[in-house]
């Protein structure tokens, strides 16, 4: 089971043409390994999956797998609102060497709970790779209810869920009713600590893009049941958990990573650079966490 701080990695781009910046991507992977990040999600929402074409999407997954070189697990984002497409992307991620895949609920077409069950069941049966469900109704307009997750947890290669509602009551329901080897990950940095302390297994994190060492240590302590020590670190991180969402993710976090000198300021339309009115707010959060300029 993959546990701990799992960074939902940004995809660095070149400002001049918005192509993927392969050199800085490699450096980011190396930096996360050095800083203690426990696993990487490649090309999730934070990695701008909606605006990468299929070739770029798969090339980015393959590059991260190659750069990680087995030192930490790589989880490939392969979800789609077409079941056939999700199967194809998951197959290609498996061929690229990903350790697992993260599959968001089908967005926009709004399936029923039975449709969600059959969608994920079909992908699991078609591709023999560990698969993590991803529920984020605030983005998808599709909410996979706990009862559906519990049904899917019985499928052997569906191994966990990224539950991004921030609803700790729902998280507790999943922890209490899913098999013990089914991983419950937070997808909401602000409530991740409490989810882990109640029996969850980690955090698929935006904040880890800028504070990987702190997030890694917080998750390690929480998983070890050292609540007081973990809460002390989380207190330092709270401004980041809040202010990295002053505009739609990944706008603020990409701006913050660039301000730290780890990549260029570059993001693809329809997303735009962070509005000037929020610059000082995000900079202050970075300084309060002691991570600006990588310090």
From TrEMBL:
Oligomeric form and interacting partners: Homotetramer; dimer of dimers.
Family matches, as Pfam families: DHDPS (PF00701)
Pathway(s) it belongs to: Amino-acid biosynthesis; L-lysine biosynthesis via DAP pathway; (S)-tetrahydrodipicolinate from L-aspartate: step 3/4
One GO location term (cellular component): cytosol
Keywords: Amino-acid biosynthesis, Cytoplasm, Diaminopimelate biosynthesis, Lyase, Lysine biosynthesis, Schiff base
CDD domains in the record: DHDPS
UniProt entry tagged with the keyword Thylakoid: no
Functional note: Catalyzes the condensation of (S)-aspartate-beta-semialdehyde [(S)-ASA] and pyruvate to 4-hydroxy-tetrahydrodipicolinate (HTPA).
Chain sites annotated for binding pyruvate: 46, 204
Protein name per the record: 4-hydroxy-tetrahydrodipicolinate synthase
Catalytically driven reaction(s): L-aspartate 4-semialdehyde + pyruvate = (2S,4S)-4-hydroxy-2,3,4,5-tetrahydrodipicolinate + H2O + H(+)
PROSITE patterns: DHDPS_1, DHDPS_2
Location(s), subcellular: Cytoplasm
